[in-house]
Amino acid sequence: MQPLKILSGDLTADRRADYAEMLFGSGEHAAAAELLLGALELAPQWAAGWFRLGEMQEATGLLDLATQAWATALKLDPADRLGAALKLQLIGKAPAAAAPPSAFVETLFDHYAETFEDSLVDKLGYRLPEFLDRAIRAARPGRFSLALDLGCGTGLMGEKLRPVAERLEGYDISTAMLKKARAKGVYDLLAKADLQHFAYAGPKADLVVAADVFIYVGALDRVMKTVAGILATNGLFAFSVEKPAKGGAGGDAGFALQPSRRYAHSQAYVERVLAANGLSVLSMQPTVIRWDRRQPVDGLAVLTSPRPRADVSSCSKT
Question: Which domains does the chain have, with CATH numbers?
C-alpha cells in the first residue's frame, strides 16, 4: 500500500488547497469547496484532497456532491485510511457497518500520537484510567500475575496498572502509539494488534483492560468472545463504552456510529454481549469519559468476571 499523501505533490494545487482552507476557516464554505475542486483538477489522484472536498461540500449542505467526493476518495484509497466510508454512512449514503476500517483507526492514531496525551488529558479532561484503576483496586486488592492492556495507546492506562501487575503486556494497532508507550518503560511486552481480529496464544490473564477503546471497534461480539477465552477463572475484565445520545441507542443493533466517527453502545447491548460470552457484571458505573466541545461525553465504566462454572452449566439447561 502506497503512503497516504497529505499534500497533492503539485505545488499549484497545494497552494490552492491552502487558500481554500483559509476561506473555509473564515466561514466561506462554498468558495472554499470551489477552490479546492479547482486544485483537484490539477491533482485528480489526491485521495486526501477529495476527502477534504467532501467535508467542505457537506458544510455547505451539498450532500450529493459530498457523496461523490467521498466515493472518489474511497476509490483512490480502498483501504480507507481517511474514513470516507464512515462519512458516507453518517449521511445515509452507505449501509451501516459493524466496524470502522482498520486502516482508518491505524492512520488516525499514527497521526495523533505526538499530541495525544496533551490533547486528551490536558484539553479534554480525560481521567478514565484513574476511574478504572480505582474500580479494579476496589474489586480485587493486591497484585495480578498477568495484565493485558488492549488498545494501550501511549500507555496512560499502563502507568496505572504497572504497580499492581507482575507482568504487563500492551497491544495497539498504531505503531506510533506503541513507540510512545515503549518510551515510558512500563510494559514487559508491547505488540501491534488489531482488536477487531485479536488473537492471543499466551497464558490466561487475571486482568484485561480496554480503556476508551471500543469506540473504535463497533460490534463487540468478536472481541468479547476473545477476552472471555483469555481470562483466568477468577480474572477481571475492565473496559469502557460511550453511551448513545438520548434517543440514539443504535436501534436493534444496540450500537451506532456517531458524527464523531466513534461508536456508542447502549447498556442493554453491553449486558447482552457480556452474558452471551459467560461474563458477569461486577459493576457498571456511569462516568464522564472526556469533554468534547465543552460538553461531557457520557459513558459506562464496566468491570466483569467469568461466571462461575456452575452458573454457566445451569444457564445452558434452561
Answer: 11-95 (1.25.40.10), 115-316 (3.40.50.150)
